Amino acid sequence: MKATVDGVLFKQMVLHGSAAIALQKQKINDLNVFPVPDGDTGTNMSMTINTAATELRKTTPESVEQASKVTAGALLRGARGNSGVILSLLFRGISKGLKGVEEADGKAFAAAMQEGVAAAYSAVMKPAEGTVLTVSRLASKRAVEAARENNDVRFVLEQAIETGYEVLPQTTEMNPVLKKANVVDAGAKGYLVILEGMLAAVKGEPLPEVTEDGSAQEKADFAALGEEEITFTFDTVFIVRKTTNKPLEGLRAYLSSIGDSLVIGEDDDAFKVHVHTDTPGSALNEAQKYGTLELAKIENMRTQAEDLAAGRQAQSTDDLDAVERELEEGAAPAGPAAPEKRYGFLSVCAGDGIAAVFRDLGVDGIISGGQTMNPSTESILNEINRTPAEVVFVLPNNKNIIMAAQQCVGLAEGKEVIVVPTATIPQGITAMMNVDLEAEPQEILEAMTASMESVATAQITYAARDSDFDGFAIQEGDYLALLGGKLFGTERDIAALLRQLAGEAAARSAEFVTIFYGEDVSEEDAAATEAIFSELCPEAELSVLPGGQPVYYYIISIE
Q: Of 173, 187, 455, 494, which one has the fewest beta carbons inside 10 Å?
């Protein structure tokens, strides 16, 4: 156990932090104060730090400076949602604080933590107390004090975490929304979970392996295993997109008959399988009776054990990118698209129908994402680089994606990036309808931003859990209507909610009402919705279109 942190230990600290939050991401998601379905804080923070873990596994950093630099770069590009962006900023500041440092003692590491807090605060326009910013600030302050008492990284982290958990319950009192829901801040909790994982690495604890069901098992030490101790040869992991509602019990029984270590994770749209087997092809073939294979990873555990026992690095599918590059004999990757015009536009959205509307309005590219699936900064940046324009406008269309998009400013090669702060799909559509290609960039931004004030957004979704919010006693499965980002009503009957929204549109003297119906709404139900709005808003110009969006049964634009 070391009193300082070098590059190798910092790498292990990030790997442990990533595993720690992956194990608790659902518990952190459950702290969300708003009961609509959302990938949200735990998922976003886990996916963000996992990008750094993935990148670090490919390297053997020679110094803590190098390890923190790799971490910060990966987090910047992998940041998802506001919580992921703030996490990336905290680590970016840590990297800045460790610049030029070979091995960090307690004082250097504590100072770097404070640099991280400064970076996060400076990037957030209106820092709110009772959030991860508060907890990280007070934790790092205690870290600096602790380093003066004992210049040992373990002691510094222990004291920072202890202070963080003392402050965490106070976030409930600091933030009125948290107080109403009687929960602590999810981002702050996620940050402390990551720090706990990092401390576990400093203590020399083994790295937990994250399984799909959210449990942990100690990572297998293949070097300590004899070949006879490996029952099945191939570690097989794959994802299948469902095309049938057939239950997975039959698949589970079949896979159990041809292997062991079986874990199946499932949601409404897809399932992921982990199994050890001698016949991975059979496992894949059987799984395709339930849907379309999207991704697979197969590794030979026997050869991995042989390599490790012989002191060699075990090959894994993580090495495939390097192998491909070697086979291509160093072919240079494609660079950013050369400008063919002055202006380009990108829209973040989900649903083929909504994407088609944006394309008709002139966007150059669609970035798939929205509620429950926030795209990473890297995903947005890749689309920016592919857009053949000098100036690229990005429409996030979701308040939780705006910060990730803003991180792209200055990263695109040879392109100016302008983020239009659209928080909803209707705002994005209205903004695109107010583009003047003859104007200067800032004039276009101002016109698009001003136009957003003319549209109100209503959405209907469902409650993911029981909650008491804004005076509404919400039961899991209730239909929820949101208007302007606030809870408008909740009912067991969706038609009743639609009538309330139609009445509100009429009270606002709406001239235009556009209704996008989601992937779970039939044409018959959409026609019934159209009849409700036609009855209650006879003066409005009404359009009902298939949006194809997930999560939201209806997205309604009221102008």
A: 173
